[in-house]
């Protein structure tokens, strides 16, 4: 950890944190441009069917499922910044090839699928390192605040990216709009390369086999009930959202007849909800405790799908869908920053990347299953029934947390005189590790 991190109580005076945040926020904004432009490119320009849209999403999500554990082990072994920069540069090159092919009139769905695989591979290398870097970048007492501010700024960046993506798609066409994401990846790589934190230490010196380090990370997460329950919640949420998100663009653009500009605006409103949720998460945790707050945040998303299932074309329903997405992502922002902080606070430094990688592996593994399920259900029963199944699946993560002692967690680990157990002790104690809880 840098000396600056330990002496300054303000995150905004932390130079390396500002560089980290600027680079990652630019990447989020760029990805939002792609999330707006790519569906338009596939559905409206290349006439992709529901099955082809599902396969495109499946191929993009397959690399994280297969490579997350290896990426986490690499990030615990080697400097995170190098891994992040490499991932950014590869992603930039892949998306630039789409814009070039579009300009030459030679773009195909097969090209998009290859790019999805390459970008997914580069993304998992980057993300495994980026998520594990924050706990070493800032002081332990600032982790929750850091996650809250990061989540807020990411959501604001996503809002700006969605709106910019809609504008670029309308002005330049969807293929050229992807150049905005290319620029964001290059800026992210530049900011990351300028971080000056020290990256040596005991964890860097250990060079056991890759397979042994991966197995150690799996055992570590399984042995701590907090890590294992939150990882299960993330995986269940990921499966449901993968099904919903695979058909979301197709449903809005084709069946509800949204134009690209309105589609981008709806995504932007939703991202603004994520910003609000992430910003208010620390206050909600102080008032209700992290367990009850996360439980409430998981209870609302299934209800937010009801307007989507009842909607028909028209401006009134577009506004209702935007409001429902705002609420859904506000819940996601609040719960997401809180559970990430808990996992980071209870995990020792040398295990951060592997702990995150186990979660990423399971959540990423659930996504391809969700996309294939979406494609099969949409082909067999139709898009709206498939979305109904996705809405029902959103109840599962709520039930997982509701059946866990974590639902009564009243303090963040290390807060209010309730220190987190030493990670090695937590690993040995298995499912009966200590936890500060309030009354039921």
From TrEMBL:
Residues 412-440 are annotated as: Disordered. Signal peptide: none annotated. Keywords: Cell membrane, Membrane, Transmembrane, Transmembrane helix, Transport. Gene3D superfamilies: MFS general substrate transporter like domains. It comes from the Bacteria. It is found in: Cell membrane. InterPro entries: MFS_trans_sf, TM_effector. It is a multi-pass membrane protein. The chain crosses the membrane at residues 20-41, 53-73, 227-250, 262-281, 293-310, 316-336, 357-380, 386-402. SUPFAM superfamilies: MFS general substrate transporter. This is MFS transporter. It comes from Streptomyces polychromogenes.
